[in-house]
Design a protein that fits this description.
pyruvate-formate lyase- activating enzyme; 20 helices; globular; nine-stranded mixed β-sheet
Length: 504
């Protein structure tokens, strides 16, 4: 498998050199394995114009007094890990108790910076996510302090989904109690694989047997959704190893499973070891596609599991996957912590990644912005389009109607070709991804936004200001349900009313 960055450069070069619709077309010979030359993006969405340092900070300072118009989400970053996994590019700092204590105190001060400002307190927070790093590395007393501060300073909705991310290594009963007592109702555990050999190679610290026993115990906690991540594409994972990972996960009493493709980044320790011959190569793109298709077949045929998104499966109603669904769309996301990312009124930003600089700015009473992206003119439309294509079944007419623009016509050549290539099925106005389209969903979402951007730049037919239009936030789980309704109705010779597919 080429590195992630290689794929990005490859597709970008194709788009730059070939400014026509054919640049977005897929290979028609084998949609699953080679629809596009590479996967080009982790998260799809429109690009923006960079704003750096003081200009970004001064702008955000003014915007912080403006009220949010819709429900939002929040992200809290914990930049510590007890060890580094070879494949990870999110590692920042080794865990140390004194550093974690100091970080906790400064983080609470950051919560307090905007607690009287409209951007933070004017509308409910529907989902709150603690990511990292490894949030579960924190000691119980710091977990308690942070969660107490969150409830004091953020306008959490009554049914707010509060997710704590981490690993089972070092996740004691005391830490679990601090999480649950502090309001955490969703635990996201990075299992990645149950294979002992691969876990050892990737520097994962616990045995498969311990992981299984611990997940069984934690899953018994009332009102706590337990979700695990599985990665496919590791060296040595193909065939029976991946089949076993799926079987073990589907038989556990957990609430949800995410199946992600491994991204091999150029500067990752994993890539270094592969290039030096210490490890076998990771799965090729075609091999990863087969592994993804196997995950879809496995969970689709399992009576206890139902689909929420292209990659996410739920076993019980406790698993809502709310943060991840809202984060893909135009929802505001308030970031907190060193290295956190968020967005507000279409402007996205990253916070200072160096602990000392982040702490210095918070102590001065400043939001620790490092770089901000000013949105494109039609950012809301583009964000909505990307999240809709990435989510599952989507309706271009419905999206366009919500923004009072016609996006069907400029996108028709691309969508028709994707149908012909086998990435999409079309029934009426509804496009639904095939298994191949589900595998390539993020790349397709990015290409769709770039195709529409190209069309806009050639012909300014979009007169309405999309920022002022009504919000269209597709519910991915409901989209899949509606798609099943559509196909069932079609088999009986009925056509559901198009209004039945409008998300709330």
């Amino acid at each position: 498998m080429p590195s992630f960055e290689t794929g990005v450069r490859l597709l970008k070069n194709i788009l730059i050199k070939k400014r026509s619709y054919s640049a977005f077309f897929a290979d028609e010979t084998d949609a699953l394995h080679k629809a596009f030359p590479a996967k080009a993006t982790v998260h799809a969405g429109p690009f923006g114009i960079p704003m750096l340092w003081n200009s970004a900070r001064n702008f955000l300072e003014k915007k912080s007094f403006e009220p949010r118009q819709t429900d939002g989400i929040a992200y809290v970053h914990i930049p510590f890990c007890e060890s580094r996994c070879l494949f990870c590019m999110f590692y920042q700092n080794p865990y140390a108790s004194e550093a974690a204590d100091a970080y906790t105190n400064t983080l609470i001060k950051e919560f307090e910076l905007w607690n009287q400002r409209a951007a933070q307190n004017s509308a409910p927070i529907k989902a709150l996510y603690f990511g990292g790093g490894t949030p579960t590395a924190l000691e119980p007393h710091n977990i308690k302090k942070i969660l107490d501060a969150v409830r004091t300073n953020l306008p959490l909705a009554e049914d707010c989904e509060i997710t704590f991310e981490g690993r089972l290594h070092g996740l004691t009963d005391e830490k679990l109690s601090a999480c649950v007592e502090g309001g955490v109702n969703r635990l996201s555990i990075g299992v990645q694989t149950f294979n002992a050999d691969i876990r050892k190679e990737m520097q994962r610290l616990d045995s498969p047997e311990y992981i299984i026993r611990r997940l069984e115990k934690i899953s018994a906690i009332d009102n706590l959704a337990v979700v695990i991540d599985l990665l496919f594409g590791f060296p040595g994972q193909k065939g029976k190893v991946w089949t076993d990972d799926l079987k073990i996960a589907s038989e556990l009493p957990i609430d949800g499973v995410d199946c992600y493709q491994l991204n091999v980044f150029e500067k990752s320790p994993l890539n270094t070891r592969i290039k030096s011959g210490l490890f076998d190569p990771a799965a090729t793109l075609a091999e990863a596609a087969d592994m993804y298709a196997e995950s879809v077949e496995h969970f689709s045929s399992h009576p206890n599991w139902h689909r929420l998104t292209n990659t996410h499966w739920a076993r019980t109603p406790l698993e809502r996957n709310l943060y991840n669904r809202l984060a893909k769309g135009p929802s505001d996301c308030l970031p907190f912590g060193c290295g956190a990312g968020g967005k507000l009124f279409g402007y996205s930003w990253m916070q200072e990644r160096k602990l000392a600089k982040w702490s210095e700015m918070v102590e001065k009473g400043l939001k620790p912005v490092f770089v901000m992206m000013k949105p494109q003119e039609h950012w809301h439309l583009m964000r909505t389009l990307a999240s809709s294509v990435e989510s599952g079944p989507f309706n271009l007419k419905e999206i366009g109607d919500n923004f009072s623009v016609d996006i069907e016509k400029p996108l028709r050549p691309v969508m028709d070709q994707w149908v012909k290539a086998g990435l999409l099925d079309k029934s009426g106005d509804l496009f639904s991804p095939t298994v191949a389209g589900q595998f390539w969903h993020v790349t397709m979402a990015q290409l769709a936004t770039e195709a529409l951007t190209m069309a806009i730049s050639k012909e300014d037919t979009f007169k309405a200001d999309p920022i002022t239009q009504s919000v269209y936030s597709p519910n991915q789980a409901e989209a899949w349900v509606n798609y099943r309704r559509l196909t069932a109705a079609a088999s009986l010779g009925r056509t559901p009313n198009s209004n039945g597919f409008r998300s709330p």
